[in-house]
Design brief:
heterodimer, A: about 120 residues, mainly alpha, 4 helices, B: about 750 residues, 3-stranded antiparallel sheet, two-stranded antiparallel sheet
Amino acid sequence: MTDLALAIAQADFPLPMPGATLYHYLLVSALMFAIGVIGFVSRRNLIIMFLCTELMFQAAGIALIAFSRFHLNHTGEAFVIFVLTVAAAEAALALALVVLLFRRKETLDASSWAELKG
Amino acid sequence: MIDLLGNLFTLATHAVPPAAHGAAPDAAAAIPSALTLPVVFLPLLSCVLIGLCAAFRVKTKLPAWITVACIGAAFVCTLLLYTNTHGAEKPGVLTAWEWLAFKPRGWPAFVANFAFYIDSLTLLWMLFVTGLATLIALYASEYMAGDVGPGYCRFYAAFSLFVFSMACLVMGDNLVLLYLGWEGVGLCSYLLIGYFYKKDSAVAAAKKAFVMNRIGDLGLALGIWLTYVQFGTVRYAELWPLIEPYTRLALGGHLDQVPFLVQLIPVLFTVGAFGKSAQIPLYVWLPDAMEGPTPVSALIHAATMVTAGVYLVARFLPLYFASEWALPIVAWIGTLTALLAATIGMAQFDIKRIMAYSTVSQLGYMFAGLGVTALASHEGAAGGVFHVFTHAFFKATLFLCCGAVMHGFAGQLDLRKLSGVMWMKGWGIVGVAMLIGCLNLAGFAFTAGFFSKDIILAEAFTNPRTSAIGWILLITAGLTAYYTFRVFFRVFVGPKYYEPGDELHGHGGDDHGHDHGHGHGAGDHGHGHGAGGFHPHAPGWAINLVLAVLAIASLAAAIAYPVHWVQDLAHNASTYMVLGEAAHGGHGADAGHGHAAAHGTFLGMDPHKVMYYVSSIVGLAGIAIAAYLHLLGRTTAAKSRADGLLPYLGPIPKWAQNKWYVDELYGFLVYWPLKAVAHISYLLDKLLIDGLLVNGAGWLPKAGGRSLRPTQSGVLHDYALKMAAGVGVILVIAAAAMARSAANGGTP
């Protein structure tokens, strides 16, 4: 790591929320992930399910950023930026698929598509 | 040509290493390479040239002339070799090139060169092999005329290859080269028996011959291996001095001191010899081998190849002395084969088959001759070898006469359907040649066959221990005379009658679908049995010439007896140098051995003196009985006085005609058990291997897949729930592991 990057990393940034520790961030992340999983499993609407996956995505992102800040290493943050980009592209793709699926069966119920039954 | 050959190979003439005893040739014998190599390689050249003929689709008799010229030249070279080396009185080795040489770790070096061992035994064999092969090639040029084209090339290529293999077998200076020739003649025999490959019986006979020979060859191969293990060499010149001490031990009465493995070697050789020379229990292939063209039967299955076993025994006779069982086995099996084959021959109707059984019987005589001469007097192989020599001529004559009849009467071989052939126009020479051959085979006084048989009989009676063999052989001689002249009286004399055979319909033809029995225009052949338009096809100049030469030769072979030519050649074989000396040295050492021991008698008389008269009388009696039963009072071809005897003999003639059911016995003992094993193996394969292992292995993933299929519900939530549950399980396990490591003090 260059000296400049090290200096930036170790600069004494003001904390956005004084008193919040890594533990709190991870707790938020875990809660968000759990809500996402529960939503994904319990809801039938394809768009809601898709939003739940987004929620899980962002939970993982929060955890990554928290760890990144904790270790004073920006790799995690850079990674999250990539994830956001990919998630945006994927959202466009997924919503397009949802539109196509809806056109086929006039429903958004995920259980309508079970042709790949073993 | 000869110079060219001489330059092609790196030649070296070695002397036989001087043996310990004085009788060994101490001077190096110069073996002229320019004479030796052509004997071996001219037939090979002929084979290659005929291969070219086949490639260029030659449709003339050229292959025949190539063969006659090459093998004839080989015969001349053998003759010159004989005169140049004075009958090889000093044996020598001529190395053509180095062939096999390697040194296994912990073993003596294994050396087997492509080298030729020239001694009197080799020369004797090569003289009649090349001489007869030349004549028979000439005969076949006419006999096979119907097959001119690819079949002709195939025939003569195999024929030439046979002579080459035989030369390797007889002239090889080591057991490996002998084995090469041994397998080579077996291969050519197979190819030529199966010559009419469109005929099922010919194919079956070829396979039978091959398989039966393979059983014998296993014995020979094991014997060669054991020779190397025991003596560390397979070259004759090195073997003789190594064998000699054992022979001396045995002749001195100390047979028990000869190691077991040394005693085993000749027994294994004997197995090989019995396969090749058609002795009990491996004789059944030879009569079936008559499916081949008759010249092949004459050359390979009567005169030369089948005597290879006799050659092997004669060559290794000193080793046979050093074995407790080998010589009695040879003598007794030979004797029993002689008797058995003669009884079968008496009841057959196919004249070629009679000759085949006669060959088996006479080969038995040769082995018995080797056994008894050796057992009785330690004088070596004179009797058996002399019989090989005379038999080669008269049996070739007999076969070729039968072949001429077969050729002329469209494959007719049944003696009930031919009569008085000799009196027909153009058949005089065949008839006379047949008569001469029959007289020889029957042991008529002063014929060659008479003398050679006589030596064997006299020797058998010389030793009281082998007089039982003598009596059996004497009875066999009578039977032989009977069945020989049964053929002659039925087919060649008597009222003129014939029915053509079935080869007009073209069975067993080669490549063009026509048969070999009528290569002379198709105009007069449009009819079958008893039809009026058939004309017997009298033999042409080639067949007549060959038959005349052979008949004269088989008569002239008798001269060899009073001048002791063959006997001397057999005696002088380098192999026996030790025998003459050791036999004298061993005089009186053991009452059972040596001819100083109790001299056997024939009914109180000296067998060497009375056997001439006894065997003549026995032979004449056989001829007289045959004449009474088959010539006198016979007015038709089909019936004779012998038929009147049938009611008194019960089932015996039928049993003998069916070859004493030996084939059926082998079928019962070997074929059916093997077939049963094969069926059981088939079922095992079907049920156990295919059913359980192969299909079982296929069924396992299929069943696994079927049982796991319900988990693939196709419902998205289902998958998500299972995935979440899986992650949960992993988390629980991880948490438990962390908790345990924390409890252990922080180290995972």
